[in-house]
Amino acid sequence: MIKRQLPNALTLSNLLCGIVAIVALLAGHNSVIAALLILLGAFFDFFDGLVARLLKVEGAIGKELDSLADVVTFGVAPSLIAMTYACGGSNYYLFGTDYWMSDTNYWCFIPLIMALMSAYRLAKFNIDTRQTNSFLGVPTPLNAVLWLSLPLIEHLSFFKVHLWGWYDERFYDFVASAVTNQWFIIVGSVIMAAMLVIEVPMLALKFKNVGWSGNKARFVFIMVALALLLVMNIYALPFIVIAYVGISLADAWFKKKEN
Fold first, then answer.
1. Contact predicate 80/48, CB 8 Å
2. What is this structure's pTM?
3. Cβ-Cβ contacts under 8 Å for 201 (sequence gap 6 or more)
4. For residue 214, is it left (φ>0), alpha (ψ between -120 and 50) or beta?
5. 170-196: per-residue pLDDT in tens?
């Protein structure tokens, strides 16, 4: 009984991370904590399926529970981070009295579309037999990576923190100001909402073997992602998401051309 419930416990831990991340955002001034909780949720999300396969206790309940947890942690929480920045930045108290009494630009609510499309995508994924070796549309955890990077990048830039790798203060300040710009977030959230449900094959990092043949795009993405992380540390996260989309689209185009 305990063995069967262990993967579900990890999935529920993922869900708890998402819930607490949302609470941190609604409380105000806690966008970095929310981002770190989403990352912790991704850790649990990775291991729940792995543990289920190792223990041979995979089941329908685990699959459904996983999707429900992902809607919260990788759908609602990142959308609220994006909304927070679109409304006024990491120090903006979303639901304070002053917020509702002010002349708010309601364009800042647009990032919530990503939460809706995440729910739609995950519901569709559960019944779609075509997504065994690749995804159709950008997976929700990867979309979450883009938006959780905003508070991390902003705070690293503000406090002039250099973790590792190459460092150019002017470039990193430019990246921070670009990714936290209101219109970048609004337009970017619309694009990513569409990318979540688009019927285009995207890479799934599932290796049936370790050979180069059949895994070219996966190896290229992993090498690019590691190189970006080594050189740019946390600032690399938005570029990794862009690289994933670009490499996936190129791979889909080449495969279509071969066929």
1. no
2. 0.87
3. 134, 135, 136, 248, 251, 252, 255
4. left
5. 999 999 999 999 889 999 999 999 999
